[in-house]
TrEMBL record:
<dbReference type="Pfam" id="PF13471">
    <property type="entry name" value="Transglut_core3"/>
</dbReference>
<protein>
    <submittedName>
        <fullName>Lasso peptide biosynthesis B2 protein</fullName>
    </submittedName>
</protein>
<dbReference type="InterPro" id="IPR053521">
    <property type="entry name" value="McjB-like"/>
</dbReference>
<feature type="domain" description="Microcin J25-processing protein McjB C-terminal">
    <location>
        <begin position="37"/>
        <end position="147"/>
    </location>
</feature>
<keyword id="KW-1133">Transmembrane helix</keyword>
<keyword id="KW-0812">Transmembrane</keyword>
<keyword id="KW-0472">Membrane</keyword>
<dbReference type="InterPro" id="IPR032708">
    <property type="entry name" value="McjB_C"/>
</dbReference>
<feature type="transmembrane region" description="Helical">
    <location>
        <begin position="21"/>
        <end position="42"/>
    </location>
</feature>
């Protein structure tokens, strides 16, 4: 038990300072995002995501500083999602990342895609992009057909 706690503390302290300082904000935001995903219908959640753009994947322009900020936010969201006692799936992570990017003034695109698994069951996935960077949910995107995208200019916060 002591060794495990020591290992976790070492892991926490080895992260960049900005990531450690952001954890107390990101961790509860993931919980709130998960609760919103479970409790609200998508038509209400979509208002938090930005302007609907349809099923056309696109990219938004971002400055190098905004891109670096987006990478930091993505790393922190993914790291915090691994340490929540609840399920922080791709939708909760995308919603949390979208809120944080909006607060930081970074334009982003939130996309939703569908695919089928080996048993022909539908699988849904959500991801957030800033320019060519996948902030979160960027694994295996080639297998998903985009069914909806939401765009923000980076000036509005939910």
């Amino acid at each position: 038990m002591y060794a495990q706690l020591r290992c976790r503390l070492h892991n926490f302290l080895s992260k960049p300072r900005a990531q450690r300082y952001a954890l107390p904000i990101v961790w509860p935001l993931l919980g709130l995002s998960r609760a919103l995903v479970l409790l609200l219908p998508f038509r209400l959640l979509s208002k938090l995501l930005g302007a609907e753009h349809g099923p056309y994947p696109l990219s938004c322009l971002a400055t190098p500083q905004q891109t670096r900020r987006a990478l930091d936010i993505g790393r922190t969201v993914r790291w915090a999602a691994c340490h929540t006692p609840w399920t922080s799936n791709c939708f909760a992570q995308a919603l949390a990342a979208r809120i944080l990017l909006g607060a930081a003034g970074v334009p982003c695109v939130t996309c939703f895609g569908l695919s089928r698994d080996e048993q022909k069951e539908l699988i849904a996935h959500a991801w957030v992009s800033v320019g060519p960077i996948r902030v979160c949910g960027g694994d295996g995107l080639a297998r998903y057909k985009v069914v909806g995208c939401f765009v923000t200019s980076g000036r509005e916060t939910p």
